[in-house]
Amino acid sequence: MNLAFVESPVQLLNVLEWAHAMGGGDPAATTVVVLPPVDPMSRGQLRRMAELARDEGITVRWQEARGESGAPLKALRALTGLVRRADHIVIGDPFSRYVQLLLTLVRAPRLTVVDDGTATMEFVAQLARGERLVRWHRRGSKGPRELVLAPVTATARRRFTPTANRTVEVFTAMPVQAPPGITVTANDFSWTRTRFGPPRISKGADLVGTSLVETGVVDPVPYQEAVAALARAHGATRYFAHRRESAEKLHALEAATGLEIVRPDLPLELIARRGPIGRTVLSFPSTVVHTLPLALAGTGVKVAVCDIAPEWLRDTASPRAQGFLSGVTETARDVQRLAPWRATAVTAEG
User: What is the pLDDT of residues 197-222, one digit of tens each?
Assistant: First the structure.
């Protein structure tokens, strides 16, 4: 039995891509456990993605593990039997403390990590360097909670190390160089292209939002100014909000820019493929600069990425933030690079 754990709509999309890339097989042999976050937009997208997974014949189990007191332990008890019976474990977020806790129960001889966006790049890099698993936008301070969970994280790291009795695979659309012994399988979004589109392409441009403000990386003032400048320079009319963007920030963006704020009900790769979509899609450094060119291959839609200027970063941002964001842009294929907005104009490079 294949047993997958997902906590976001993108992770569930990439489990579907993985199952498709594996040649289909028996969909009933795969069970996806959804461990939903608490924010309503993520939960709504996850429910829509769960419907698509069921349409493919995959079993989906919705398991609350957050919010209520005692929910994490209750979920752990409910899932223990499934985890121990699984032959193949598929996970979407190797940084998740809850998933790491579940990994301590794993006996399966096969483990696959599917994309959780650009976080996959940092995950593979940390494995290669032998570092502890810390999300790139966090400073990595060892507080009381981290110290308590340190043995769990250490065990999870060992699970991600191939042995004579366990294979490890990374299924990804990101440019990564895995440590020796780990298999990298390319995700080309063939399931998305097969099931959706081709899209109707509209004139002008669409702009893709980011949660860099919400994660404490980018200051909201230069972000809003950059969005306004990009919209003016490229004739953008719509702003596709990231599921984690706050309502207050989106209201301010709408008032300042006149953009139509769109809250997608599915991951952007599916929304774009379904259409209509602008002839140009503008983004800041994020997952979509790697995934949209694959999902929209052959449609003629151009993806452009605007770099993050160092002065946009907040004092609370991780010291690794600038280097990581630059790496996201520099390694993206088939995209146009745009210089960061600096109170003058947005210009194209090359």
Answer: 899 999 899 999 999 999 999 999 99
Per-residue pLDDT band for 241 (boundaries 50, 70, 90) equals very high
Average pLDDT, the chain: 90
Q: List all residues 6 or more positions away from 344 whose beta carbon is below 8 Å from its beta carbon.
A: none
| Interatomic CA distance for residues 35 and 211, integer angstroms | 21
Beta bridge partners of 110: 88, 167
Cα–Cα distance for residue pair 244/39, rounded to 1 Å: 8
Average pLDDT over residues 86-96: 94
Judge residue 42's burial from the number of C-beta atoms within 10 Å of its C-beta, 0-12 exposed, 13-18 middle, 19 or more buried.
middle
- Position 140 pLDDT exceeds 70: no
Residue whose structure tokens are 């979407």: 92
CA angle 30, 35, 41 (to 5 degrees): 115
Looking at residue 147, its pLDDT comes to 57
Predicted local distance difference test score (pLDDT) of residue 348? 43
Q: How far apart are the first and last CA of the chain?
A: 49
Phi/psi of residue 336, each to 5°?
-95, 135
Q: Which of 286, 332, 283 is nearest to 116 (CA)?
A: 286
Residues 125 and 178: their CA atoms lie apart, in Å, by 7
For tokens 């963007």, the residue is: 245
Residue 315 tokens read as 């004092």
Query: Where are the alpha helices (H) located in the chain, listed in sequence order?
Result: 9-21, 40-55, 71-85, 97-103, 119-129, 144-159, 190-195, 220-234, 247-257, 268-274, 288-295, 321-330
